[in-house]
Amino acid sequence: MATYQLANAGLRVALIEAGPFYDPASDQQRTQLRYPWESPRRGAGTTRRPFGDFNACLGGWEIEGEPFTTTPGTEFMWWRARMLGGRTNHWGRISLRFGPLDFKRRDIDGLGDNWPIGYEDIKPYYDKVDKLIGVFGSNEGLYNDPDGFFLPAPKPRLHELYYIDGARKLGVPVIPARKSVLTKRINDERGVCFYCRQCDRACSIHADFSSSTALIYPALNGGQVDLFTNCMVTEVTTNGTGRATGVTYIDKQDRRVHELSGRTVVLAASACSSARILLNSRSPAHPDGLGNNSGHVGRYLHDSTGASRAAFIPDLIDRDIYNEDGVNGMHVYTPWWLEDENLDFTRGYHLEIGGGMGMPSYGFGFAVNQYNQFFGERVGGYGNSLRDDIRRYYGARLSIACRGESVPQYNNYCELDPNVVDEWGMPVLRFNYQWTQHEINQARHMQDTMEALLEASGGILLGSKPGADDDYGLTKPGEIIHEVGTTRMGSNRETSVTNEYCQLHDANNVFVADAGPFVSQADKNPTWTIMALAWRTSDYIVEQMNQRNL
Amino acid sequence: MDRRESLKTLFLASLGGSLIASTGCTAGIPTANAGNRLTWTPLPTEYSYGRTETEQAHDAELLSQTFFSNHELVTIAVLCDIILPNDHPNGGALDAGVPDFVEFMAKERENYKVPLRRGIMWLDKHAIDRYGADFVGITEQQRRAICDSIAWPDVEDAELQPGIRFFSLLRDLTMTGYYTTELGFRDLGYQGNTPNVWDGVPEQVLRRHGKQYDPEWLAKCVDQSRRDITAEWDDDMNLIT
Fold first, then answer.
1. What pLDDT score was predicted for residue A379?
2. Which of A22, A479, A519, B200 could hold A115 in an S-S bridge, CB 3.0 to 4.6 Å?
């Protein structure tokens, strides 16, 4: 987003990407609309593509030659993308605005901190992001799930109609999903969704949002951008006064160190990677790393909470088979609805709905007739009767995944590991992270909620309910891939890294345009807020340059 | 993807010399299998589907390796054929090249290697104990009798548990290996993975399930006849095109 805005403002931009160029329309890279038999492993996940062999994202939990470490007792998972457009080639396109309450959580529960800005500051940018990038949804007039400039929503699928009925029975709200998929044309450059349910494979007609297809390609066409691919930034260089002079990067092809000078540096490497670059940028003026006079770089790292459950819907056996691919993931969802309840945890969560007659890929047909148990029939066997079992149970599953807000903690952080470097010679990150009782109690509540909703939807619960010994199925920190907060913004330079414009307190020509500046994450997926903040930051950079302050 | 003209053939008879050392006798292959011949459609040995160079090299390396011995592969093929037989208009596991798929997955995943190998050993030992020859060496009827005893996980006989686990694993791999091919798609009647315009659940399906779209919700949904008209909004966030 920053590249796009700054280039459009007439600035020359050097965009440095640690991975290769990526274009989902090129046949060399396209995975969309491929059939499972085009892969020898039929779409199964690998270390290189953990979310499946056809997933667009190059990267994963482990990257060869680029490890990370954890302190004893920490189970952090760190997803990294290595490609043009980064993680926006991976995400679920769920695009939720933060609401007014989400910027001022300390005022409500006394925990964490307020943002130095409020919804009214960012709203104009959410509006602009909606129109530039496109997001479907519906205006519901919900105070903390604000309305937007939405494209119309796709109609619910059959399993989602079961969920809607179940939720309404329990008085739980359910509304159309909000996702950055073009259900309607927004410009002449990008196509309109053709409903293949494969946004995770990246769209060859650019009908879903990834920063590469929707922002970087147009910026490259404008002629203002020099793109460096397979180049990994290792530090921001500074002069004797502490101002940034450019960056040092390693060209992965010649394995040599290069320097690039610039007037202003914008980091958007993802929250933890940007923190890593800052911590690695040590100089006499910044002995603990650039922007780290407060000691807060890497602190307050937090991720969304998550838990999930599934059910078998007997009413959905022997379905009529038709194409119900729709868009990737859900067409309907439940926003947080218990804001005013007195619960044994603070901060909310939302519910994402899954199911339907998806394309068979690796794993399809495993435990083929396990649902026979619910009819008193035997599970197992062999022969052509298994074909009947496959058809009988195809698309008869309903699942829910919860995504919640955690309470940011000073003691959850990433730092440079003094003893380990990656293959490029750069110190790696070491993570220290523990959930608090709030997140654990929230997960227990998620489990109760999911059970009630799945049963109300006509489902028979599958698996067993995780208990206290398993933190109620709470996902590991990092697992939801919503890390935020490592360079949090604030008006007090002793307890924050950037100001409200994501500008370092300690070096005014360095900005962070990813989720690092988040003070708290809300129970909303962070992308839309990253985009809005980055746009706001870009406007500020241009204004400051015009005023000769930069 | 017509691979049918080139069929992979392994002659059971040629494996008849496999020496079963533990019993000290040679297990010949009785003429249980018609013509003593087992054939399946070979899977491609090259793939191209948006891979990076590293991935391409990794896959090429795996595809060039051989994991199972001929005897092991034939045993897997015989089992796959029992699990999802070919005598069906949409073909079966052998028509879908499932033995090659199982071979690939065994090379791909460490956690399949031992269970599959150990399973075949168990099965042969069991067949020899029960019928005096290894699994491919016994009659079709005898093979079915063994499968009947290990195909149902609710069987509690402790001695059969290794066989039950193995059979369940191979059933999983066979089903997934078949249903992720064109034959499997046809068998299932799968309709997706193609550009289309989603406009809701078909009316007769809604009726069958006693569901309906409520008008208030539908008002928020896309009018597909206007999908190609560029979106514009008024200042109050209402879509006006």
1. 98
2. A519
Cβ–Cβ contact B211 with A under 8 A: yes
Q: Do B222 and A136 touch (CB under 8 A)?
A: yes
Tell me the shortest Cα–Cα distance from A372 to chain B, in angstroms.
12
B155 inside domain: yes
E strand or H helix at A453, and its extent?
Answer: helix A437-456
Contact A485, A408 (CB under 8 A): yes
Query: Between B70-83 and B98-108, two packed helices, what is the crossing angle to 10 degrees?
Result: 120
Query: Within the 3-32 window of chain B, which residues sit less than 8 Å (CB to CB) from chain A?
Result: none
For the segment A505-527, the average pLDDT, to the nearest whole number, is 98
Domain ranges, residue B84? 8-188
In a domain, A459, yes or no: no
Whether B233 is in a domain gets the answer no
Reported residue count of chain B is 241
- Judging contacts by C-beta atoms under 8 Å, the chain B residues touching residue A197 are 192
What pLDDT, on a 0 to 100 scale, did the predictor assign at position B13? Answer: 40
Q: What is the mean pLDDT of chain A?
A: 97
**Who's near A412: CB < 8 A, 6+ residues apart?**
A299, A300, A301, A302, A432, A433, A434, A477
pLDDT confidence of residue B38 = 87
Distance from CA of A20 to the nearest CA of B (A): 10
Q: Using the predicted structure, report yes or no on whether residue B27 has a pLDDT greater than 50.
A: no
Q: Which of A386, A387, A318, A383 has its CA nearest to residue A357? A: A318
In a domain, B137, yes or no: yes
> Helix, strand or coil for residue B207?
helix
Chain B closest CA to A57's CA: distance in Å? Answer: 11
Whether residue A442 is contained in a domain is answered as no
Residue B29 has pLDDT above 50, yes or no: no
Which candidate in A382, A388, A393 is best for mutational testing of the B interface (most B CBs within 10 A)? A382
**In this predicted structure, what is the pLDDT of residue B52?**
96
C-beta of residue B49 within 8 angstroms of C-beta of residue A54: yes
Cβ–Cβ of A325/B84 closer than 8 Å?
no
| Of residues B50, B63, B221, nearest to A29 (C-beta) | B50
Q: Which of B105, B172, B205 sits opposite A367 (nearest CB)?
A: B172
Query: Of A433, A469, A445, which is closest to residue A349 (Cα–Cα)?
Result: A445
User: Which B residues, 98 through 117, put their C-beta within 8 Å of a C-beta on chain A?
Assistant: 101, 104-105, 108
Are the C-beta atoms of residues A535 and A125 closer than 8 Å to each other? yes
Q: Could you tell me if A92 and A119 lie in one domain?
A: yes
pTM: 0.94
Give, in order, the Cα–Cα distances in Å from A284 to each of A129, A281, B35: 40, 10, 83
Q: A176 to chain B, minimum CA–CA distance in Å?
A: 8
CA distance A479 to chain B (A): 23
Task: Provide the domain count of chain A.
Answer: 2
Q: Does B57 touch chain A (CB under 8 A)?
A: no
Could you give the angle at the alpha carbon of A391 between the alpha carbons of A385 and A392, nearest 5°?
Answer: 85
What is the predicted pLDDT for the residue at B8?
Answer: 56
Please determine, for residue A410, whether its predicted confidence score (pLDDT) is greater than 60. yes
CA distances (Å), origin A454, targets A69, A71, A403, A473, B55: 38, 38, 17, 17, 40
A237 vs B2 pLDDT, higher one: A237
Question: Mind listing the pLDDT tens digit for each residue in A257-288?
Answer: 999 999 999 999 999 999 999 999 999 999 99
Average of pLDDT values for A171-193?
98
Host domain of residue A96: 1-17+63-134+211-228+264-304+426-434+484-550
pLDDT value for B186: 98
